[in-house]
Structures are given as structure tokens and as C-alpha cells.
Amino acid sequence: MSITVVTTGHFAGVGVGPGDPELITRKAARLIASADVVAYHAARGKQSNARRIAAELFPAGVVEEELTYPVTTGTTDHPGGYAGVLAEFYEQSAERLAAHLAAGRDVVLLSEGDPLFYGSYMYMHDRLADRFPTEIVPGVPAFLAATAATASPLVRQTDVLTVLPGTLPEPELARRLADTDGAIIMKLGRTFPAVRRALAAAGRLDHALYVERASMPEERWVPAVEVDESTVPYFSLIVVTGDSLNGRRSRECAEPVAADTWLEAAGVPAEVLVVGLGPGPDGWLTPEVAEALAQVDHVVGYAPYVNRVPQRPGLTRHASGNTVEVDRAAFALDLARRGEKVAVVSGGDAGVFGMASAVFEAAEDPAYSGVSVRVLPGVSAVQAVAARAGAPVGADFAVMSLSDRLKPWEIVEKRLRAVAEADLVLAVYNPASRSRTEQVATARRVLLEHKSPETVVVVGRDVGRAEEALHVTTLGELDPSTIDMKCLLIVGASSTRVSPAGVWTPRFVR
């Protein structure tokens, strides 16, 4: 009796490059030429570009599987919307290929450019790679063909390259363009008008090159500023070279002027604005701060806060880490000495554990005697959490940070005891971080020495943002392990109460 052993086929995701068949790699060509089944994606009613590139390599008798997208835009009647209809399509397509693989046939799935660079292959990989032997063959991405066509050095030395989809929201796209050296913008087509506006807002439009159908016979490229936006196809992209920033960088990094006499002669006041952006929502940004940010040429601050400032033409952003406050302040003061209009940004209110104090600290240097500092208030995190809860700080209250980075923990404990003995409501900033995990538990223990376990505690997390959560508990029931840097705590006084309307502290004391 003979036994038939059935072996599964081999699945390969093969990049065929951007359009020129001569850019197909030798390995890709070998796998295509030996395949039992060649699959490729195509838009409804259109020829597959991947098939066109590789067709001359198809072996005689090969089985072709055209995987036709049901939609190519976000409009569909499917109950799951655009994402739902595509997920269903990928499931069905994967099962078509799985049937061939299970029968022992080798399947090659063609991918324009590279299989794992904005390619549909990856959705098949997710569904088939754990079931069948799988191989991925890289291909030349379209943006490399585009930079070759324009002879544009994309990035040099320590330049940073950012690849962006044109489908990003326009403000986000402008911000990222302003913050990088070289950039590639993919997925144009109908997004081109917004992309061009984002380039202009980031000050990058004059250095942006539009490339259409790179490496194909119809290839063309022109400055992005000259493109007729009604003619932009999907097979197009924008190249922004890193070299375009070199001149601007040399000006930004120049040594500060030695004297301010030229400022005085020109009648230009040397001033640093320090502004609070509020806890997060745009609606909590004050009109005064919004107007100020619209007037400055430079924004300086911790990266997440700088990222919240909309990019616009003429604005240069200077983002830095979270533990260099005085250096950041000195940099802003130096810019102001050179006659630049500059704002230092903080979350919440800049004067409440924000950058205002650091700027004044740096400004004590006699070198900045000619620079004034003006602070514009913002909505503080304690105000936001208190408002969400009701009115827990409606009477006397104190505000403290549990961070011991700038003061000894012994001082923190001493102040906690003083606040507790005085029976004040307490707002707690910076309760925990990855490196500070015990302070909340210690603070709770110290407060319980003078406060009842029934004392009301409000825990606000990411208030004002999509992930917002508000939890009302007691000091005795508070679980320190649930508290992190995204939280702000309000520990009530003995008079703080919880009513159906919310948490509040009476104005009167009896």
C-alpha cells in the first residue's frame, strides 16, 4: 500500500519595484518564473500595475489570481464601513490563496515597490504566514526611484528622514514636516491640496519636488508649487530634501550677539513670552495665548507641548526633552536677544509647575538683563480636574508636586504633614513616574496620620483628552498602584463632600 504525503506550497511576497521591470531583483525574478500561482492586487476596472511590471516573467501555464479591491476610497455601504469591507476582502483573498497553498502549489504575491512598505501584501502575510512556509523578497520603493529621477540627495550625515502618508490630518502633516530634515510624502491623489498647504505652513514648499510615476515610461517631476492639483494620480509622491534646511539651521544655531545695542537702536523690544497651553483640548487654549502664538517666530518647549502648536509659515519649532528646563529657557532668551519673537510653552498654566519659573531662573544671568519676560496664564490641570469633579477646591487649598527631582523627599513629607494638619484640600501634581513608584503610597501614609480614611479623593487621568477618566474614592481606599504620571489627585479637606451633583468643598468653616 502506498502512502501519499501532501506538502503545502511555498508562499512568497515579492516586491517588483516602482514600475521599471529592470528594477526587479534577480531573486524576485527567479521566484516569479518558478511559481505555480501568481497573485496581484488591482483596482476595480483597472489593470494591476504589479502585473504589468512583472508580466514578462510569468511562466507558461501559470495560474493567475487577481485580487480586485471592492473599494479604493472611504465610501461604502458595508455595515463595517471602509475598514470593514477591506477586512472582509482580505479574509476572502487570503482563503483563495490558502486553497492553492494547501494543495501544494507555490504562490507568489506581487507587490509594487516593497511588500512591507505601505503594501497590501502585509495583510495577506498576517493571515497566511503562520499557516504556510513564507518568504519575503524586498523591492525598490517608489521614493528611491523618485529621488534617483530628480537626482536629489535626500538626507546626508545626521539628517533625519521621515516618510509620511498624505492622508494625515493637515495640521499634523505640517508639524511633522517642520520637525524633520528630509521627507517623503506618499498617498497623494485627492490629498494633494491639503499636502501642499501643509508644506507651505511648514516652510518647505519651495524645496518640495513632485514626482509622478517614478521609473515608468510616463515619469515626470516638477516643483510641487507648480503642480495642477486636479491632475495628481495615486502613483505620485513628494520629495523634500534634507539639504533644504541647512541654511535655516545655520541661522538658528548661530552664536548670540554680544550686545543688545542694535536692538535698542532699531526699537525692537527683547522679550520672551511664557505661555500655558492648557491641559489638552483646543477649547481650553485662551484667546490671549492663541493670539500670541500666532505672532511669534519661534516656539520653544518640551516636545509634546511644542507638538500642540499648529505649524504655520514662518514658525520654527525647538523641541527638547523633559529635564533640561533651564537650558531650554536660556536658548529662548538667546533667541530674544537676537531680536527674535519667541514663546516658551508649557502644558496647563506655565506658572504652575511649568516653564515660567525656569525662564526667570535663567534670566537672572546678567547677560539677559535687556530681555523682559512676560507670562500669559493658561488653564491649569488642577482647574480642569476640579471642574470635572465639581468644586472640590471651592475653599482654601494647597498645590504640591510629589516629584523629588528638584527638592529632597524630606521636604515633601514635611509639607504634606503641614497641609494635612491645616486641613486644607490638596492638589497633587507629578504623583508618580516610571522611576518614582513609591511616593504615592508614602504620601498616602503621611496624610492618613492627620486625615480620616473617609477623606474624599478625586483621581483625574488625561482630563480633557480622549482617554479621560475621573474616579472618586477615599484616602483609605486609594490604590497607589493605579496612579501614574498622567494622573492628578485632589485630596479633600474634612469638610469636602460628595453629593449627587458632584464633589465640593463648602466655602464656610464651622
TrEMBL record:
Top EC group: transferase
Alphabetic keyword roster: Cobalamin biosynthesis, Methyltransferase, S-adenosyl-L-methionine, Transferase
Enzyme Commission no: 2.1.1.130
Domain Tetrapyrrole methylase, first and last residues per copy: 11-222, 272-479
Molecular function in Gene Ontology: precorrin-2 C20-methyltransferase activity
Gene3D superfamilies: Cobalt-precorrin-4 Transmethylase, Domain 1, Methyltransferase, Cobalt-precorrin-4 Transmethylase, Domain 2
Top-level taxonomic group: Bacteria
Annotated pathway: Cofactor biosynthesis; adenosylcobalamin biosynthesis
Pfam families hit by this protein: TP_methylase (PF00590)
Membrane-spanning segments: none
SUPFAM superfamilies associated with the record: Tetrapyrrole methylase (SSF53790)
Gene Ontology BP term (one): methylation
NCBIfam families to which the protein is assigned, alphabetical: cobI_cbiL (TIGR01467), cobJ_cbiH (TIGR01466), PRK05990.1 (NF004647)
Family: Belongs to the precorrin methyltransferase family.
Protein name: Precorrin-2 C(20)-methyltransferase
Biological classification of the source: Bacteria, Bacillati, Actinomycetota, Actinomycetes, Propionibacteriales
